[in-house]
């Protein structure tokens, strides 16, 4: 028999994260495009980001027919948080001028699935690309990062907003993420975690 799930955070009811999820306003609008393969992932961090930000939207799919209209929302300038040629570093808003806030588009999936989203939605490939600051490391202690600086979707969004909207801090978004990781470590047992993950944890 399957366990009851919280309809909001989709975690088992006895491990519901809703009490830890904030509701943070942001000048930046965040549009998360989630590949369907991520929906049932144990660490669905994109959902946590969408729940914790009042100015965020999460769409699930491969081809997004509404994307052209979403990218042209009045009052925003769209950019894609994804590596590539001519990528620009994220910079804090210039408070001395009236520049439009960003519509930050964030693909959510493995690197292969995220690239597929760009391929089947050509509007994404045409967006200016932005990158996170260098030297960041993930708090995801249950999985070795595929490359230096690789973060979960939630961590990437937090790092981006902390950069763009400094000195405003969005670290409160990470509280349910950290609780989720602690819960999984507890479920697997200390010995199993130490044997399989502790070495990579120290490396971070």
Automatic annotation (TrEMBL):
Its EC number is 2.5.1.25. GO terms for molecular function: tRNA-uridine aminocarboxypropyltransferase activity. GO terms for biological process: tRNA processing. Keywords: S-adenosyl-L-methionine, Transferase, tRNA processing. SMART domains: DTW. InterPro entries: DTW, DTWD2/TAPT. It comes from the Bacteria. It holds the Pfam family DTW. It is an enzyme of class 2 (transferase). Residues 2-189 form the DTW domain. Belongs to the TDD superfamily. DTWD2 family. This is tRNA-uridine aminocarboxypropyltransferase. It comes from Pseudomonas leptonychotis. The lineage of its organism: Bacteria, Pseudomonadati, Pseudomonadota, Gammaproteobacteria, Pseudomonadales.
């Amino acid at each position: 028999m399957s366990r009851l799930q919280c309809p909001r955070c989709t975690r088992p009811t006895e491990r519901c994260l809703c009490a830890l999820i904030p509701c943070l306003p942001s000048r930046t609008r965040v549009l998360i495009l989630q590949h369907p393969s991520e929906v049932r992932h144990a660490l669905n961090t994109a959902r946590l980001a969408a729940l914790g930000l009042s100015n965020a939207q999460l769409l699930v799919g491969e081809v997004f027919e509404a994307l052209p209209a979403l990218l042209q929302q009045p009052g925003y300038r769209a950019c894609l948080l994804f590596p590539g040629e001519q990528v620009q570093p994220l910079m804090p808003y210039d408070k001395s001028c009236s520049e439009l806030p960003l519509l930050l588009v964030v693909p959510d999936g493995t690197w292969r699935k995220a690239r597929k989203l760009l391929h089947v939605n050509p509007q994404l490939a045409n967006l200016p690309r932005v990158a996170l600051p260098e030297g960041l490391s993930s708090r995801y202690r249950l999985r070795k990062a595929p490359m230096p600086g690789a973060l979960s979707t939630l961590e990437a969004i937090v790092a981006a907003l902390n950069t763009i909207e400094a000195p405003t801090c969005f670290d409160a978004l990470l509280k349910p993420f950290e609780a989720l990781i602690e819960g999984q470590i507890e479920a697997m047992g200390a010995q199993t975690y130490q044997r399989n993950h502790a070495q990579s944890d120290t490396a971070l």
